[in-house]
């Protein structure tokens, strides 16, 4: 029997028992969909963090009181006891770091913003030094950024995100409009480029003001985050980090052999740690989801055994007409493989749809990994063939005389 004839017979058999075929496919569909969803969301999360870190650039690192990632309450308590990173630290690095190409500092908090009688809450207020917009790659679509002189004198000027224009200013031109941030008046001099939403949170709901203006309102006792741009990535960045670490340790009188009393975070270190965590999550979640594939394979084997029993007389007739054992074997193996492949295709589509749905509703980033799509189809087909061999062998081994006598 040619394989095309076996494929045709398999399609006819599956079509005759449509409901049973659909129910049999559920295990494979769920397994493949779960794997595709997990891989898609993990890749999306990695791509998102990579993109956010690259907002500063691969040649930028931070100096702060606490690290970006804290894994326990005990760590949080220990870091809280550290001295704050202050403006003097920023000025020391800015003036004394030989390898540093660019140095900035910032603070931030959530505030309410008013314009006339209208107001919005939950706005991200960022107090920045003059060079911070360059470190953040802020693209100004209207107006300008504040100058070093305006930072030095604590000018009440601000750069806003597009949410402020749309939600507070009703779409009007924001330039030279006055807004009140926690009751303090600022004049808008610029507006940033729209960035959209991430994880359901808007990236455009912000107001940027000079750091000195921020500190005039909220005080200078809070810790700063210092951003440093090195001469390049890799070894050059590590050398720059070592220079800044030495300066900070000397200024803080950290003793030889003791841990730093501050945190120096290289982007590539944080990215590597984050990817390790997400890959570990994927390494755990994918095998758990793959259990559904095994269950689906067992269901396929069970249904194929039932099918062999139901079609015993058909098998006897085919053998009486000259069908060989390998012809019967091929027919049933193709039937089970085809069933699993169909489940794999539906599972891939469903998994991508689930990832897209989560991305749309929750703003969670997604990135389709085509290797996972190919792997899902390959594994699902392999599961169908593997679990279909035993029923196919049972069919091929039937005695034709016994089979013809079957009712």
From TrEMBL:
Belongs to the ABC-4 integral membrane protein family. The chain crosses the membrane at residues 21-42, 280-308, 329-356, 368-390. Residues 288-396 form the ABC3 transporter permease C-terminal domain. One of its GO terms (cellular component) is plasma membrane. Its main location: membrane. Residues 21-245 form the MacB-like periplasmic core domain. The keyword Cell membrane applies. It is a multi-pass membrane protein. It holds the Pfam family FtsX. It is found in: Cell membrane. It comes from Terriglobus roseus (strain DSM 18391 / NRRL B-41598 / KBS 63). One of its GO terms (molecular function) is transmembrane transporter activity. Keywords: Cell membrane, Membrane, Transmembrane, Transmembrane helix. The keyword Transmembrane applies. The lineage of its organism: Bacteria, Pseudomonadati, Acidobacteriota, Terriglobia, Terriglobales. This is ABC-type antimicrobial peptide transport system, permease component. InterPro entries: ABC3_permease_C, MacB_PCD, Macrolide_Exporter_MacB. It comes from the Bacteria.
């Amino acid at each position: 029997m040619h394989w095309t004839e076996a494929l045709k017979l398999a399609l006819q058999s599956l079509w005759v028992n449509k409901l049973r075929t659909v129910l049999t496919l559920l295990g494979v569909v769920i397994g493949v969909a779960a794997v595709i969803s997990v891989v898609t969301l993990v890749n999306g999360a990695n791509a998102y963090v990579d993109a956010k870190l690259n907002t500063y650039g691969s040649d930028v690192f931070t100096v702060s009181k606490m690290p970006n990632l804290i894994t326990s309450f005990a760590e949080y308590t220990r870091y809280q006891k550290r001295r704050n990173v202050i403006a003097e630290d920023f000025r020391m690095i800015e003036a004394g770091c030989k390898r540093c190409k660019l140095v900035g500092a910032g603070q931030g908090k959530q505030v309410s913003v008013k314009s006339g009688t209208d107001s919005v809450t939950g706005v991200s207020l960022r107090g920045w030094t003059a060079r911070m917009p360059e470190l953040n790659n802020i693209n100004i679509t209207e107006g300008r950024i504040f100058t070093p002189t305006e930072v030095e004198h604590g000018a009440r000027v601000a750069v806003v995100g597009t949410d402020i224009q749309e939600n507070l200013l009703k779409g009007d031109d924001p330039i030279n409009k006055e807004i009140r941030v926690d009751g303090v008046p600022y004049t808008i001099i610029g507006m940033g480029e729209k960035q959209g939403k991430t994880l359901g949170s808007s990236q455009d709901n912000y107001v940027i003001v000079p750091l000195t203006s921020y500190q005039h309102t909220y005080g200078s006792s809070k810790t700063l985050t210092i951003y440093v741009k090195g001469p390049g990535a890799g070894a050059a960045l590590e050398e720059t980090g070592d220079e800044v670490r030495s300066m900070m340790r000397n200024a803080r009188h950290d003793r030889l052999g003791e841990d730093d009393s501050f945190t120096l975070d290289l982007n590539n270190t944080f990215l590597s740690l984050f990817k390790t965590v997400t890959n570990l999550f994927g390494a755990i979640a994918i095998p758990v989801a793959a259990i559904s594939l095994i269950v689906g394979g067992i269901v396929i084997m069970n249904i194929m055994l039932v099918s062999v029993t139901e079609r015993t007389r058909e098998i006897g007739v085919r053998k009486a007409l000259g069908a060989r054992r390998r012809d019967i074997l091929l027919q049933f193996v193709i039937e089970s493989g085809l069933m699993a492949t169909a489940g794999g295709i539906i599972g891939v589509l469903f998994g991508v749809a689930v990832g897209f749905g989560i991305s749309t509703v929750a703003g969670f980033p997604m990135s389709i990994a085509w290797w996972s799509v190919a792997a899902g189809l390959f594994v699902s087909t392999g599961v169908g063939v593997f679990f279909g061999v035993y029923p196919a062998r049972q069919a091929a081994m039937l005695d034709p005389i016994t089979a013809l006598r079957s009712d």
